[in-house]
Amino acid sequence: MDKNEIAQRFPQASSAFIRLNASDQPTGGTAVPDGDVRPSAELERDSGDGAVAALPVQKGVGGSFLVRITAVRKRLLDQDNLCEKYVVDLCRYAGIIPGDSPATTQIEVFQQKAEPGQGEFVRIEIFRR
């Protein structure tokens, strides 16, 4: 976008805003308020889907399981904020349970108010059914 297009789209824009965002800047840089020209930033390489890529799951045992997660907290949370999904997925990746489908695993989530002087913790119990 050139300076005229920016001024038309953003009539309240300051001249500094227009100057800094116009595409008619000198090649190889972006103007900064003092008129100096700096080199373009080097873009990071694409990390892909590394954080959400499928992880190899260890070979687990078969059967049906009950996973009971109990959060002991000083202040109770809404039930949907306990994030039991992460705990169950970790158990699945470690091969402790075969999966988290309702056909093989029943998941129960509870929370209890901590006693005075008692710390907060999460108790994970896994039973073979």
Describe the SSE topology:
Elements: H1 3-9, H2 15-21, E1 29-31, E2 37-39, E3 65-73, H3 84-93, E4 105-113, E5 121-128
Parallel strand pairs: 3-4
Antiparallel strand pairs: 1-2, 3-5
Structural commentary:
- There is one protein chain.
- 19% of the residues lie in helices and 25% in strands.
- The protein is of the alpha+beta class and 129 residues long.
- It folds into two domains: 37 residues, no CATH class; 64 residues.
- A three-stranded mixed sheet has the order 4-3-5, covered by helices on one side. Strands 1-2 form a two-stranded antiparallel ribbon.
- Strand 3, helix 3 and strand 4 form a beta-alpha-beta unit.
- The termini are far apart.
Output the helix-strand order: HHEEEHEE
Distance between the termini: 65 Å
Number of helical regions: 3
User: SS-based structural class?
Assistant: alpha+beta
For the sheet with most strands, the description reads: 3 strands, mixed
Please state roughly what percent of the residues sit in beta strands, choosing from under 5%, 5-15%, 15-25%, 25-35%, 35-45% or over 45%.
15-25%
